């Protein structure tokens, strides 16, 4: 097979310099006076092997998406299996309510090891509706004071290879250069993903400088095949949340890691191409013989435009940039994404299918989905300044009656005016702040009790309150706080609700829910506690009509760490007293600015060990600053190493 035949078969998807060579050779093929483009047998053989390596590499990289789909399906299987188990446990709890523990009404303790003492209550007349599973109780119920010392000596602890491995995966290392690191399990998953990328990059790659162009080409191909995954993970309305159970914030973490990897691949592609052009390629392979001619070629200009756009996307997505210029981050993210995809389509025509998929995801999320199924609602909200750095945005309305069953459906398809689930969040826009902020939407967790689904037919309407706890920083929040000092009511636009219900479902399926909040993290935790302690069952008559509600009694432990006395007033004391009466063990140490930080580790481990004494596994949810989240996670990791099996969920809102 001569050069013309080789080029005629594969010229379409080849790089620009090979297309130029093949095009020229094909045009002159059969002419008697071929001089400049005549190739030696060695050059012809090299051209054949180079084209073969390029096409083989692109076929290998295309298989990467098979791995992506397989991983997604695997996590989908794990999610639905765990959801099925949680539902079964929840059904068991409903059939046999847990042992109730009465709580005193004290709401604070000493700073170092504060905890509200819990004592077992006798089953008197007040507990006549409480069905106790006596067979599941120990003959001698230890008091909390003795349970703290449970497994306190090395002889009493039961370490195993499995528990130590699970503890290592759950452990979160300390900060590195003031950067918060994920838990070891998440870090290993990211490293494993990068290992898969490296495998596809180097599989059957000719390890010779003569084929360095193939290495550079594969880097660009890896960037292309990751486009659909990148845009899918970054979308607010996407199926991965329902399939895997991970929240938008958790998926967004992986979205950022994939984006960082792609930006690195783009830099490798650019650097390797330049190095090949000016250092390795022989003269007969060059289309452009000068730097000016090379960098002004239309294909190269389009590539530089795509590279610049994606690198700017990376730098404007850094946490430090988002915190200081969040508004600029939002605007640039939209403009740069569109520009980058357009540049990429013209730079590498073979990528247009991937570009079209990514653009379709972007358009469907931003335009089509929000137009067909809008979650936006305009309401008149009250603005209340709570302290010099905090304000409360609140609104209320009547919910329409909905005849739906309770349980583990997360409310993903619901819209705000029909209610929301615990720990949901919305995107807030305030047009009155001016044109700069009118098109921007900022995420906030709904701090008030979630109305959930109406389960009775007593009334067709249910009045509810929506409250957002806003901590002023820079930009939008600072201007909103300033507006709250001059105006008490404004028109706002709410987009939502969003968020996963996996953490709430995990708590429902546990006989020993443990929640930890730090500062404004109470916005997430309070709605969960309220939902768990106010879930009602409804007795029906022979005709199936609801005749009387029945509230389930539960024991739930809550630790709320605050910085100042002002923060302790964010939740009305009457609401906390009511929750304590219904089974909440509340620990609210004095503010940290007065007595320092409490011993969070010992409090959490005590609660986990108390659950272990009764043969149960605690479920722990924490929401707060990074240091508090790490302390709680590592306390659970230490408990896992000792043989306990707590489940941990960190509700950390990210954007």
From TrEMBL:
It comes from the Eukaryota. The keyword Cytoplasm does not apply. Residues 104-119 have a biased composition (Polar residues). One of its GO terms (cellular component) is plasma membrane. Residues 370-504 form the FAD-binding FR-type domain. GO terms for molecular function: ferric-chelate reductase activity. Residues 104-127 are annotated as: Disordered. It is a multi-pass membrane protein. Keywords: Electron transport, Glycoprotein, Ion transport, Membrane, Oxidoreductase, Transmembrane, Transmembrane helix, Transport. Gene3D superfamilies: Nucleotide-binding domain of ferredoxin-NADP reductase (FNR) module (3.40.50.80). The chain crosses the membrane at residues 59-80, 188-205, 211-233, 258-278, 298-316, 328-346, 352-369, 512-533. One of its GO terms (biological process) is copper ion import. InterPro entries: FAD-bd_8, FAD-bd_FR_type, Fe3_Rdtase_TM_dom, Fe_red_NAD-bd_6, Ferric/Cupric_Reductase, FNR_nucleotide-bd. The keyword Glycoprotein applies. It is found in: Membrane. Belongs to the ferric reductase (FRE) family. This is FAD-binding FR-type domain-containing protein. It comes from Podospora fimiseda. The lineage of its organism: Eukaryota, Fungi, Dikarya, Ascomycota, Pezizomycotina.
């Amino acid at each position: 097979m001569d050069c013309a035949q080789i080029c005629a078969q594969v010229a379409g998807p080849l790089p620009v310099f090979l297309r130029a060579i093949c095009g020229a050779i094909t045009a002159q093929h059969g002419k008697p006076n071929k001089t400049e483009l005549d190739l030696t047998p060695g050059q012809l053989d090299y051209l054949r092997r180079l084209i073969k390596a390029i096409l083989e590499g692109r076929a290998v990289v295309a298989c990467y998406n098979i791995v992506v789909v397989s991983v997604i399906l695997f996590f989908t299987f794990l999610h639905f299996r765990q959801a099925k188990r949680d539902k079964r446990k929840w059904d068991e709890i409903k059939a046999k309510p847990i042992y109730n523990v009465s709580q005193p009404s004290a709401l604070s303790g000493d700073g170092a090891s504060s905890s509200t003492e819990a004592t077992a209550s006798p089953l008197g007349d007040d507990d006549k509706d409480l069905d106790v599973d006596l067979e599941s109780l120990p003959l001698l119920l230890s008091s909390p004071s003795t349970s703290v010392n449970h497994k306190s000596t090395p002889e009493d602890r039961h370490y195993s290879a499995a528990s130590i491995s699970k503890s290592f995966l759950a452990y979160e290392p300390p900060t590195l250069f003031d950067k918060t690191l994920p838990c070891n399990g998440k870090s290993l998953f990211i490293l494993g993903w990068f290992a898969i990328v490296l495998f596809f990059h180097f599989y059957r790659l000719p390890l010779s400088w003569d084929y360095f162009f193939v290495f550079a080409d594969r880097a660009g191909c890896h960037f292309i095949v990751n486009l659909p995954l990148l845009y899918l993970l970054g979308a607010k309305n996407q199926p991965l949340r329902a399939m895997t159970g991970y929240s938008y914030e958790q998926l967004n973490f992986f979205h950022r890691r994939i984006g960082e990897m792609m930006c690195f691949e783009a830099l490798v592609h650019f650097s390797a191409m330049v190095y090949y052009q000016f250092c390795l390629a022989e003269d007969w392979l060059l289309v452009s013989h000068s730097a000016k001619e090379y960098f002004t070629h239309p294909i190269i200009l389009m590539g530089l435009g795509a590279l610049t756009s994606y690198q700017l996307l990376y730098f404007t997505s850094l946490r430090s940039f988002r915190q200081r210029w969040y508004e600029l981050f939002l605007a640039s993210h939209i403009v740069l994404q569109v520009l980058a995809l357009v540049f990429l389509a013209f730079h590498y025509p073979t990528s247009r299918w991937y570009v079209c998929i990514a653009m379709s995801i972007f358009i469907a999320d931003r335009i089509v989905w929000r137009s067909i199924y809008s979650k936006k609602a305009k309401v008149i909200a009250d603005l209340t300044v709570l302290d010099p750095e905090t304000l409360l945005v609140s609104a209320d309305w009547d919910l329409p009656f909905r005849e739906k069953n309770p349980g583990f459906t997360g409310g993903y398809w619901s819209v705000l005016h029909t209610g929301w689930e615990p720990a949901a969040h919305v995107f807030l826009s305030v047009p009155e702040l001016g044109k700069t902020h009118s098109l921007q939407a900022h995420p906030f967790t709904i701090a008030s009790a979630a109305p959930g689904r109406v389960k009775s037919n007593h009334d067709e309407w249910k009045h509810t309150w929506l409250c957002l706890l806003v901590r002023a920083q820079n930009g939008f929040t600072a201007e909103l706080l300033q507006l709250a000092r001059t105006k008490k009511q404004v028109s706002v636009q709410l987009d939502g609700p969003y968020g996963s219900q996996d953490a709430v479902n995990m708590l429902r399926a546990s006989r020993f829910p443990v929640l930890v909040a730090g500062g404004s993290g109470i916005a997430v935790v309070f709605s969960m506690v309220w939902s768990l302690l106010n879930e009602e069952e409804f007795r029906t008559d022979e005709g199936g009509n609801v005749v009387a509600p029945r509230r389930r009694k539960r024991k739930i432990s809550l630790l709320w760490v605050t910085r100042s006395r002002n923060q302790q007033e964010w939740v009305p004391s009457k609401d906390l007293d009511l929750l304590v009466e219904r089974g909440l063990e509340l620990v609210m140490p004095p503010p940290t600015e007065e007595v320092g930080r409490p011993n969070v580790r010992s409090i959490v481990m005590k609660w986990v060990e108390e659950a272990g004494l009764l043969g149960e596994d605690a479920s722990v949810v924490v929401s707060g600053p990074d240091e508090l989240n790490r302390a709680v996670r590592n306390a659970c990791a230490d408990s896992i190493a000792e043989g306990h099996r707590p489940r941990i969920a960190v509700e950390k809102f990210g954007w």
